[in-house]
Amino acid sequence: MSTSPTVLELRQKIFGTTDADEIKSKRGRWCRRESLWKEKLSNMSVPYYRAGDLPAPIPTPQEIEMARKQPENNLTAFRGLCFSNVYRLHGAYAVKVAKGPKMLREAENLLYLEKHCKVRAPRLYALFAHQGCDPEGLLDGPDPEFDNAADLPSYYYLVMDYIPGSDCWSDKWAQLNQIARANICRKLGEQVRLLRDVPPPSPTYYGRIEDQGFPPSDRLFLWAGERYFGPYYSHEAFLEDILRNAEGGSVQDPDNVTHEFKPSTKLALACFRQCMAQAPGHESKLTLVDLAMENIRIQGIENSPDDYDVVIIDWADLAWLPSYVQATLMLARSRVRPDPELQEWEISKGFDFFPYSTALFLKEFWLKTNSLSRLM
Fold first, then answer.
1. Which DSSP category does 295 fall into?
2. Tens of pLDDT along 191-202?
3. pTM of structure
4. For 60-110, what is each residue's pLDDT tens digit?
5. 142 FRET partner, CA 20 to 30 A, in 16, 129, 245, 331?
6. Burial 181-210 (b: 16+ CB within 10 A, else e)
7. Prior bond of 47 cis (ω within 30°)
């Protein structure tokens, strides 16, 4: 078992400074400078418009801005926790609107899934950019963020299928009985199986589609430094950057005035390589990092009061990753809702082999190194 570096050594190694406040400021700048990585975020060309028959005309930015002011068409939930606003247009489309180029990744992923996987996902109809409209309401109120439309930022507009039904946030989950919850989780597990059946470019490839890696704003590498991560062609290379991210996460707490690790953090960092080198579940599987109940839509099935159709509606964070990553995130997320054991059991049926021991270790490792909350 190796000896862990000190807090100050890791701060200097990853962030180039030992000052916790400066680290926090740097980290914020890395996330805000997503445009710096735009050319690597996606191979998606903008604009994109689907050819052929459409369910309705593609909505204009002006129509989308009007939908923001219509409660029945404003689908944005818990604004501030999501990277995009969502509006319903023409009864046929859900339109995601965001400033960041992460939207390009989601569009690219939707087109890939349509071609290579039978998973239930919305169909992409258009992706375009526009400046001059106000889909977020930045000109509203007595103290607006901008004085006129000419100063507004440019937005990406992703037009996809509107999925009828309801979101599955915690309030909806609380209304469901155990049979309904089990059916929803079982169907979510079926979607996981379809994803994991898509073969990777090579058995030891870990990265995004079309041979792409991850920017420093990606949730797997938020504390690993300002550079591009991957794609990886060996499990060992992937693990080194996961460790680096955990090291960065473990030293960024400004309240740690003693500059000392907790013993449990020391142990986690010291034994990571040894525990993970031969860990079961390193096979590359297509993984949805943000697979969460908040990112699905459910619709009741006629004459089956406890059964629902299930469609995943957020596809920005898709990549081939070791099998244990999906398992770890599933175990971590299940604990924030009632019936966690039921969720774990039903969704785990989507795995040919569920790497339980590896997932338990990695969940604890991310928890001890202050990395888990960034993945939730």
1. G
2. 999 999 999 999
3. 0.92
4. 999 999 999 998 999 885 444 456 799 999 999 999 999 888 899 999 999
5. 129
6. bbbbbbbbbbbbebbbebebeeebbbbbbe
7. yes
